[in-house]
User: What shape does this take?
Amino acid sequence: MFIKFGTIDQNKWDSLGGGAITITFYAQDNAGNIGSTSVLVNKRIPSDPAIYGFDLIIIFCVVFLTGIILIQRTKRMKRV
Assistant: This one.
């Protein structure tokens, strides 16, 4: 019995865009019969990662603005 394993060329895989990709597998038995089957793979390419610390900037701004609003309200309450 002869078994052969193969791999997908990483450079070719990387050059393909996202979406449906068909991978076909071939096999030959000891009698010389050749068979094949195909598999449909949905390749997803992740989006660029978020900017590190961007969420922290937004949280800081919200907290800062909330602090200013609360200080202004307390000043108004003291006047009344």
